């Protein structure tokens, strides 16, 4: 006796998230997607980032832990697509649509699994062409991914903490996390988390939520760009643009040139740099920095020389180096915060 194939109301259901990590709440949304459509596309957001306490798992690791939590019959119906953070809502939404169309070409009836958690869920309104599949939030639901990460990185005994989290995670994910904490990047991420929390604590007693102003310098010449490696947490050993916090009595351009000199010892006079300035852009996405609301003014200098001036790391930098422009696209996952996207804004490193 044959069993009739299930009839689905949609060809495809889309579920968007960071899933850092994938927990039982996410699993419920995924089951709702699988119940409504023949195929499901899981959009893994914040892909291609360097590891951080906010995004500790690569998109491949997230796909693996989700797949491990599903029975084989469901596993075959799920597609995983990584989408980077563009720090631009329009570009990001276009990226999601392209990724979905590539994963399930030709489908016509598409639904978007929508769970409006808080103000950060505004992105769900960027897809009016897809049918909204609203899912209610259980007010008694257990803690979410942010709190799970906090427990993970503040654990005195990882095994004990993972045991306490087990009820919040699919069993396969709990097992995955236990193995993951034994890998070499777990220890540095714990240190990174401590540094970020210490930074926030210093400002917690401020009478209002502080907004920090920073400046960055992108110097290009001879087919190369000048970058530093950060010497301490947060972002230790990640590539970044030379830059830092604006001083109280300082103009933006002055601050960018000062930070450039302090971190790279670049042998170019300030008047020459001022003449070489070809662009300035403000990067103000609320989530661009885990340290708090940080708005940066990036300055693009093009020296237009064939020779690469001498540089030497100092101050907050452990290394200052000229890197070929054509090497940058492959380095996206090695950059601090949104610095790759600042480079991409000026230098058009990716097709988007």
Q: Your description of this structure?
A:
With 352 residues, the chain is of the alpha/beta class. It contains eleven helices and twelve strands. It is globular, with a radius of gyration of 23 Å. The model has no long low-confidence stretch (mean pLDDT 92).
Short characterization:
The chain is α/β, with parallel strands linked by helices and 352 residues long. Helix content is 33%, strand content 23%.
Give the overall average pLDDT. Answer: 92
Tell me the total number of β-strands: 12
Low-confidence stretches: none
Largest sheet: 7 strands, mixed
Oligomer: single chain
How many angstroms separate the termini?
52 Å
Report the total helices: 11
Task: Indicate the percent of residues in helices.
Answer: 25-40%
The secondary-structure class comes to: alpha/beta
Over all CA atoms, what is the radius of gyration? 23 Å
The succession of helices and strands, N to C, reads EHEHHEHEEHHHHEEEEHHEEEH
Shape, please? globular
Please indicate the percent range of residues in DSSP E strands (runs of 2 or more): 15-25%
């Amino acid at each position: 006796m044959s069993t009739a194939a299930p009839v689905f109301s949609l060809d495809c259901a889309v579920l968007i998230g960071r899933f850092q990590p994938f927990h039982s709440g996410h699993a419920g949304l995924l089951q709702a997607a699988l119940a409504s459509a023949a195929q499901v596309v899981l959009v893994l957001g914040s892909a291609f980032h360097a590891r951080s306490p906010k995004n500790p798992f690569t998109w491949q690791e997230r796909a693996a832990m989700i797949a491990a939590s599903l029975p084989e019959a469901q596993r075959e119906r799920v597609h995983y697509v990584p989408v980077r953070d563009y720090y631009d809502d329009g570009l990001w939404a276009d990226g999601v649509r392209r990724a979905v169309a590539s994963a399930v070409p030709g489908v016509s009836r598409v639904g978007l699994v929508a769970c409006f958690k808080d103000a950060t869920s505004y992105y769900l309104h960027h897809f009016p062409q897809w049918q909204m599949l609203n899912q209610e939030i259980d007010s008694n639901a257990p803690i979410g991914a942010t709190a799970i990460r906090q427990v993970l990185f503040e654990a005195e005994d990882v095994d004990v903490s993972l045991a306490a989290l087990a009820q919040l995670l699919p069993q396969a994910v709990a097992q995955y996390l236990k193995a993951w904490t034994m890998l070499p990047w777990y220890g540095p991420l714990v240190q990174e988390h401590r540094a970020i929390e210490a930074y926030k604590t210093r400002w917690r007693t401020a009478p209002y939520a502080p907004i920090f102003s920073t400046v960055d310098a992108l110097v290009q010449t001879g087919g190369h760009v000048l970058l530093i490696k950060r010497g301490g947490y947060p972002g230790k050993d990640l590539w970044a643009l030379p830059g830092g916090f604006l001083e109280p009595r300082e103009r933006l351009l002055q601050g960018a040139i000062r930070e450039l000199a302090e971190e790279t010892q670049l042998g170019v006079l300030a008047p020459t740099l001022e003449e070489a300035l070809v662009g300035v852009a403000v990067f103000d996405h609320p989530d661009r920095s885990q340290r708090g609301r940080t708005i940066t003014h990036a300055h693009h200098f093009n020296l237009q020389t064939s020779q690469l001036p001498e540089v030497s790391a100092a101050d907050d930098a452990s290394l200052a180096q000229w890197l070929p422009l054509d090497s940058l696209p492959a380095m996206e996952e090695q950059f601090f915060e949104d610095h790759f996207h600042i480079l991409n804004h000026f230098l058009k490193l990716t097709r988007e």
